[in-house]
Design brief:
Elements: E1 10-13, E2 23-28, H1 35-39, E3 49-54, E4 58-61, E5 64-66, E6 70-72, E7 78-80, H2 82-103, E8 110-115, H3 117-128, E9 135-139, H4 154-157, E10 160-167, H5 175-185, E11 190-197, H6 205-221
Parallel strand pairs: 2-3, 2-8, 8-9, 9-10, 10-11
Antiparallel strand pairs: 1-3, 4-5, 6-7
Length: 222
């Protein structure tokens, strides 16, 4: 299998060779990381999935990338570079489309997920381009208010699924951010799996196992 083409650089672990109806999991890293980070989870992802880990388009330093930059005010509020986020979102969408087409995986078997800023972008993609994917995974992320006016109408979100997990002691993105996602999605026709885990801004074994079980359940429900 040839590597997936640009616009975004990526690492690819193929689905198991015997998989008749493979799925695609696209992973998006957090700010300051790179495509190698979440690709390390590939051995734990169910074998029915192709795993594609993307690199953010903004270079912060050697081996350090992002989907957008942001500043933190004295009151703790974050102000994002909205133009960068608005440019990154279609790049992700185009890469997901290209990968799914190349791997012959229909949108009904595509999942996009990420950690921290990658989770932010995964949620934004689900809400604005639901036709591209079946489900999203948001681990220690938040909902961007800038994206809400761009949300697809409820009928286009029908049948989509969403995983949200967060650390109860997360000092980087507070737990209230996850609860805001939960409360917002409650008004939408999206099936939500919401979980809070002890810990900070990190993926711990219990959270990862639960997320992988959720992915496995997706394949069985299809």
């Amino acid at each position: 299998m040839e590597p997936v083409a640009p616009p975004l650089r990526s690492l690819h672990r193929p689905a198991a060779a015997a998989t008749a109806r493979p799925w695609l999991l696209v992973l998006l890293h957090g700010v300051g990381s790179n495509e190698q980070d979440l690709f390390g989870l590939a051995p734990q992802v169910p074998p029915q999935f192709h795993v594609l880990s993307l690199r953010g388009p903004l270079t912060l330093g050697p081996g350090s990338y992002a989907w957008f930059t942001f500043s933190v005010g004295a009151d703790g509020r974050r102000a994002i570079d909205a133009a960068q986020e608005a440019a990154s979102r279609p790049l992700i969408a185009r890469t997901v489309q290209a990968a799914a087409a190349q791997l012959q995986v229909p949108p009904q078997r595509v999942v996009v997920g990420g950690f921290s800023q990658g989770g932010v972008m995964s949620l934004s993609l689900l809400l604005t381009r639901p036709e591209l994917l079946h489900a999203a995974m948001v681990m220690h992320g938040r909902l961007l208010p800038e994206v809400l006016p761009l949300r697809a109408p409820p009928e286009r979100l029908q049948g989509r699924r969403l995983w949200v997990s967060h650390g109860t002691e997360d000092g980087m993105i507070p737990l209230t951010s996850a609860r805001q996602i939960r409360d917002t999605v409650a008004a939408l026709p999206v099936e939500l799996a919401y979980h809070e885990f002890p810990g900070g801004h990190e993926l711990r074994p219990a959270e990862l196992r639960a997320a992988m079980d959720w992915l496995q359940d997706l394949t069985q429900a299809a």
